[in-house]
Amino acid sequence: MYRANDKRYENMSYRRCGQSGLKLPAISLGLWQNFGSVNIYENSRAMIHTAFDAGITHFDLANNYGPEPGSAESNFGRILAQDLKSYRDELIISSKAGYLMWPGPYGEWGSRKNLIASCDQSLKRLGLDYVDIFYHHRPDPETPLEETMGALAQIIRSGKALYAGISNYPAARAAEAFRLLREMGVRCLIHQPRYNLLTRNYEPDGLFELLEREGVGAIVFSPLAQGILSGKYLNGIPDGSRVAVSSPLQELYLNPTGIAKLQKLNSIAEARGQTMAQMAIAWLLQRPAVTSTLIGASRPEQITEIIRCLEHPIFSAEEQRAIDEITGIC
Ligand SMILES: NC(=O)c1ccc[n+]([C@@H]2O[C@H](COP(=O)([O-])OP(=O)(O)OC[C@H]3O[C@@H](n4cnc5c(N)ncnc54)[C@H](OP(=O)(O)O)[C@@H]3O)[C@@H](O)[C@H]2O)c1
């Protein structure tokens, strides 16, 4: 029987999410990959134990995570029932709706029909009465934003979620979403954008300044660019790695220019006495708008390695400048 580590709160830092009352761990764990029906259940379970034992209180899901849609939620529901039932009030569990989940016109995007039905389905799979955060997963170019935000507000009022979030919204649309929610008496807690050393497009978009002004937190996903920033691709593509099964990542990042960039970043990490993965997470955590980094993992040891980034959080002005030069933001 699983019993959580008594010292689990000693080394993690907890950061206030925007201007809310909620604190999130500096590192949160996402279950997009490696927690579904195609994965080894005992490995998924061991990763949840490792994370919670190290103070990771936040687990992020979505209706479609698997890759078989729904299967990550079902497996997490099973782990919750088996091991974490008595710890429910120590956990922040999130889910989302917006990407394709079931066939027909109501299985994706941002209609009230989609969000309300999807939230109910997620709760059943998770075996929960409520999730802590419920997100709209991506902007819908066709549905009026008022309808989508109205559905989020209804989910909060019905008690099926405690806080509302949005993901993948550019700054202008996010500002509109925050305003609509406020008018409905609901504050948006959090935004979930893709942000890492190789993907900095939300900086010129002005998203982070908006979040700070509005008092909305940010949890940034794919902080290692799906493992590209882990350092393991500097000398080829290891068997079983995500790139070995996902070729678009290879084309995007592992061309000669990309590899040269990674080598330079790796030299800075080495000089700091960190792995590149640890430096990539530490760099995100010193950005003022970032509340939490949302990592993925395929093995428990990866989580243990990442968490050690908290031992060396500070960057010198010189390191910052060098990183900005390498990543093309000067
Ligand atoms: N809102 C959205 O639209 C959206 C989209 C994507 C993701 N997300 C969320 O963000 C979470 C994380 O995304 P992500 O999986 O792309 O995050 P990531 O942290 O950038 O990549 C995770 C992958 O990197 C590799 N890795 C991690 N630590 C490592 C280490 N110490 N050494 C070597 N390799 C390491 C592992 O892949 P391998 O070992 O398999 O190579 C791992 O599965 C998701 O689970 C989900 O919750 C949200």
| Helix content estimate | 40-55%
State which percent range the strand residues make up.
Answer: 5-15%
Mean pLDDT: 97
Q: Any guess at the CATH architecture? A: Alpha-Beta Barrel
Radius of gyration: 19 Å
The CATH topology: TIM Barrel
User: Can you tell me the CATH class?
Assistant: Alpha Beta
* Domains (count): 1
Placed side by side, the strands forming the largest sheet appear as 3-4-5-6-7-8-9-10
Please mark out the parts with pLDDT under 50 across 5 or more consecutive residues, or reply none: none
Number of strands: 10
Largest sheet: 8 strands, parallel, barrel
The succession of helices and strands, N to C, reads: EEEHEHEHEHEHEHHEHHHHEHH
Bound molecules: NADP nicotinamide-adenine-dinucleotide phosphate
What class, by secondary structure content?
alpha/beta
CATH superfamily: NADP-dependent oxidoreductase domain
Number of helices: 13
Distance between the termini: 52 Å
Overall geometry comes to globular
Structure description:
The protein has one domain (14-225, 276-315): Alpha-Beta Barrel (TIM Barrel). The chain contains 13 helices and 10 strands. α4 (145-157) packs across α5 (171-183) and α10 packs antiparallel against α13 (317-326). It is globular, with a radius of gyration of 19 Å. It has helices at residues 41-53, 71-84, 112-126, 145-157, 171-183, 202-205, 207-214, 242-245, 247-253, 256-272, 276-285, 300-307, 317-326, and strands spanning 14-16, 23-25, 27-30, 58-60, 92-97, 131-136, 161-167, 188-192, 217-221, 290-295. The strands form 2 sheets. Strands 3-4-5-6-7-8-9-10 form an 8-stranded parallel barrel, surrounded by 5 helices. The protein has a two-stranded antiparallel sheet with strand order 1-2. The mean pLDDT is 97. The chain has 330 residues and is α/β, with parallel strands linked by helices.
